[in-house]
Specification:
alpha+beta, seven-stranded antiparallel beta sheet, about 50% helix
Length: about 800
């Protein structure tokens, strides 16, 4: 009987270093029978034909319009909260400043741009099908057709001029726009109606922002595309989002009533939303900005409560971080600026890229395969630990989130964000000292940080010419990216249930809640939960060019995951090589966070127990023993990244050839050696102008960050739209739709006999300038839906079933 057939994971399941028998069992299950002449690495998971991918993209929304027509200022003015603080300020119970700040937010918006506002429009503007979708989504339990309405259903309705209006977040507006655009009243071909209805459940939300996940699973097996195939699917979704926003603005009468919804990629919570958060309570903030979760969950009201829990827990966690900073010796006096009780980090936006293995998924779905959940956990945790060492390659290289900080922002209790929960005290102190040096927070050789009163800090900043800093990826600092293990409950030791034990420890410490998902930079996608097995990269912020940056970033993620499996299967790296100790965990993650901040160096204990990190450091040039930290080695971030590329080219040479990724590695090398090719530098060039007309440090933080927001909202959005539209035109002209017997009648119905190349070429400039008439806009939506269905068909290798059946997610 074979080892795989015995299916006794308890006999062979290891802790720490795997036994030779365990690795033999895994290799046999995978069909790997290595010999000196042929190691058979082509059978590894996450290679070539085995790997699939999908993405979740979070979007920023704004509503343009005056303070008397847009929902957000109207809700604030009409709220009991605003009325109560006005009354209390008049009676002297409350500072006049709080009311003045809130009033200034409403009345002082010269740009008339309201971030994350909801919208209002007449219910009668909906088609019958769209209204049916809305009625169903209002049910308390959507799996039960007889369910009563949600308890908060009244909040989605307002009366205006005696008429019923809907009041909805833009994330849900997009879903209703799609439902309306494929309704029977729209004249859509039946196949297009079916395709549109199938995609409705992909329109979700993050805590505040729209979140839309892949319309179909992408196979990364085309040597000519690889990660670019996922980027192309993302471009399809982005273009559809733009078209639906335009459609809703017109069809639902938003523009006619003084509202215009705009959706785009942006990584940070908007400046004005942060200012608003400073002058309202955490409960009122949640009322204004937490998504009601109308779409995507059977019990949306329960999900909404979960979103509120996340906001409350992370707000509390940031408060608890102040105590840790004092214990670490970073806060040395009792005078501190307390973080706001309402934390805004959940309004940040990023992209999550998930990779799946068809082989491992098939094995986990077969109870007799010999590969079970314990193996998935043991090998998955080790793969994550290996990949984490390489993640500094990604930060600022493929994605970034530039952010300006003034001198007065450098209160450690605010600027260090959640790092006290992610790093141990030693590495936290090292990063803080190096960050202050990078930001030139020194006067006559002595470090100087803000004192607290904002007026005083501004005077000091001007007198001493203290400029502050520009951070390459502040989203990774301002958000709880990957929480640190405790001594008793390591999160990646390969044991089943370790995440539950860690969450219990963290909850007891007041840092986390057991009901929340454990935050990790790179995390397992568990078969029992997801229906597939793989890994999710949660470290992507903003791409400057979706096809180049996201495509190559996806390729690198796939290559790193395959390399981790090569290391594991060949017994080159074990759990014992990367011990599950909080200090060792912090030691490798400090490199990732330091890269996000943009500090030039980091320090590693010369006697580190992390043998894998030692191997990497042996390849790094220009290291030396630290004079400031005895027993530590000083390492340059740039040299560390160059060493990682060297290791990739050497240890993954065979995988690079098998995956046809020589161009990806060459692109990575170019970005590391020449920073002007990185996403960070390209985004900075876009924000400031090319060549850089001004140094970021010549602008104050507010001016730079608002300039960045304007660039994301206008210039980058248009660039992304052009990139997406060009891909649509390319697909239309090369896929042969007009010659296909299945697609030709659908295409004829959409264009009503018009020439497709002429239609697309003639519509492009009008779309970019937002002057496309309703008829052409609707035809373009239907054409894009057909393109999405055809692309899904190419991925699934089936005929045109994708026009009628849901994709595998």
């Amino acid at each position: 009987m074979s080892l795989a057939a015995e299916n006794q994971p308890t006999v062979f399941f290891p802790h720490g270093t795997p036994s030779k028998l365990y690795l033999r069992r895994i290799r046999e299950i995978l069909g790997i029978k290595p010999s000196p002449a042929d190691p058979q690495l082509h059978r590894l998971p996450f290679l070539a034909d085995d790997i699939t991918a999908g993405a979740e993209n979070e979007f920023q929304t704004v509503v343009k319009g005056s303070g008397v027509t847009v929902d957000l200022p109207l809700v604030i003015r009409e709220s009991n909260y605003y009325k109560n603080i006005n009354r209390r300020s008049r009676s002297g119970e409350l500072s006049l400043r709080q009311v003045a700040d809130l009033t200034a937010y409403i009345d002082g918006n010269a740009d008339q741009i309201w971030e994350n506002s909801w919208v209002r429009f007449p219910r009668k503007a909906l088609s019958r099908f769209a209204d049916d979708v809305f009625r169903h989504d209002l049910l308390r339990d959507k799996s039960d057709s007889g369910s009563p309405l949600r308890g908060d259903a009244d909040r989605f309705f307002v009366r205006h001029d005696g008429e019923e209006h809907l009041r909805l977040p833009v994330s849900y507006l997009l879903k209703l726009a799609l439902a309306d655009a494929v309704s029977q009243e729209s004249g859509a071909h039946p196949a297009i109606r079916a395709q549109g209805e199938k995609l409705l459940h992909h329109f979700l939300n993050d805590n505040t922002s729209p979140e839309i996940f892949s319309f179909y699973t992408v196979r990364l097996d085309n040597p000519a595309a690889r990660g670019a195939a996922l980027a192309d699917e993302t471009l399809q979704r982005f273009l559809l989002v733009q078209l639906l926003a335009y459609y809703a603005n017109n069809k639902f009468g938003l523009k006619a009533s003084g509202q215009e919804a705009v959706v785009y990629f942006a990584p940070h919570p908007p400046v004005r939303q942060k200012q608003l958060n400073e002058c309202i309570s955490d409960s009122f903030y949640r009322e204004l900005f937490m998504s009601p979760c109308l779409s995507g969950w059977a019990r949306g009201e329960k999900k909404y409560e979960y979103m509120g829990l996340c906001h409350q827990v992370l707000s509390r966690s940031q408060m608890n971080a102040v105590r840790k900073l004092k214990d670490a010796g970073i806060i040395t006096r009792n005078l501190v600026v307390l973080p706001n009780i309402s934390n805004i980090c959940l309004a940040n936006n990023g992209t999550h890229i998930s990779l799946g293995s068809r082989t491992l998924t098939r094995l986990l779905s077969d109870n007799g395969s010999g590969y079970g959940a314990a193996d998935e956990k043991y090998l998955g945790d080790l793969a994550i630990k290996i990949v984490e060492h390489f993640l500094p390659l990604v930060v600022g290289t493929y994605s970034a989130a530039p952010y300006r900080l003034d001198f007065q922002d450098f209160h450690p209790e605010k600027v260090l964000g959640f790092l006290p929960h992610e790093l141990d005290y030693t590495h936290l102190r090292m990063i803080w000292r190096r960050w202050k040096k990078k930001a030139s927070l020194r006067v006559i050789g002595q470090p100087l940080t803000p004192f607290g009163p904002e007026w005083l800090d501004r005077i000091i900043s001007r007198l001493l010419r203290l400029k502050g800093d520009i951070v390459p990826d502040f989203r990774l600092i301002d958000y709880l990216v990957s929480i640190m293990s405790t001594d008793q409950s390591p999160s990646l030791d390969g044991r089943m249930g370790n995440d539950l034990r860690l969450k219990k420890d963290l909850a007891d410490m007041g840092v986390f809640d057991t009901h929340m998902s454990l935050y990790q930079i790179y995390r397992n996608r568990v078969f029992a939960d997801m229906g597939f097995t793989g890994f999710e990269g949660r470290y992507y912020s903003l791409f400057e060019n979706i096809r180049d940056d996201m495509g190559n970033g996806t390729n690198l993620q796939a290559l790193l995951t395959a390399l981790a499996w090569k290391y594991m299967i060949t017994d080159a790296v074990t759990h014992d090589d990367i011990p599950d100790d909080p200090t060792v965990e912090s030691e490798r993650r400090q490199i990732f966070f330091g890269r996000a901040i943009g500090i030039p160096t980091f320090f590693v204990n010369a006697g580190t127990a992390n043998r894998f990190l030692k191997k990497i450091l042996s390849r790094v040039r220009r290291t030396r023993l630290s004079r400031r930290y005895p027993g530590y080695v000083r390492v340059y971030h740039a040299e560390y990244c160059r060493a990682l590329v060297d290791i990739l080219e050497e240890d993954a040479a065979d995988l690079i050839e098998m995956n046809h990724m020589r161009d990806t590695v060459s692109d990575l090398r170019q970005r590391i050696d020449s920073p002007r090719h990185t996403a960070y530098e390209k985004l900075m060039g876009g924000i400031l102008g090319k060549p850089h007309a001004r140094s970021a440090l010549k602008l104050d933080a507010g001016s730079f960050n608002r300039l960045a927001e304007s660039y994301y909202r206008e210039t980058l959005r248009e660039k992304n739209m052009t990139e997406a539209y060009d891909r649509l035109e390319f697909d239309a002209l090369t896929a042969g739709w007009e010659r296909d017997e299945h697609l030709r009648p659908i295409l004829t119905a959409i264009l009503d006999g018009q020439d497709m190349p002429g239609f697309l070429a003639g519509s492009k400039s009008d779309l970019m300038e937002n002057r496309l008439d309703d008829d052409r806009l609707l035809r373009l939506i239907h054409l894009l839906l057909m393109s999405i269905a055809a692309a899904e068909t190419r991925q699934t290798r089936n005929r045109y079933d994708s026009l009628d059946t849901a994709p595998v997610c």
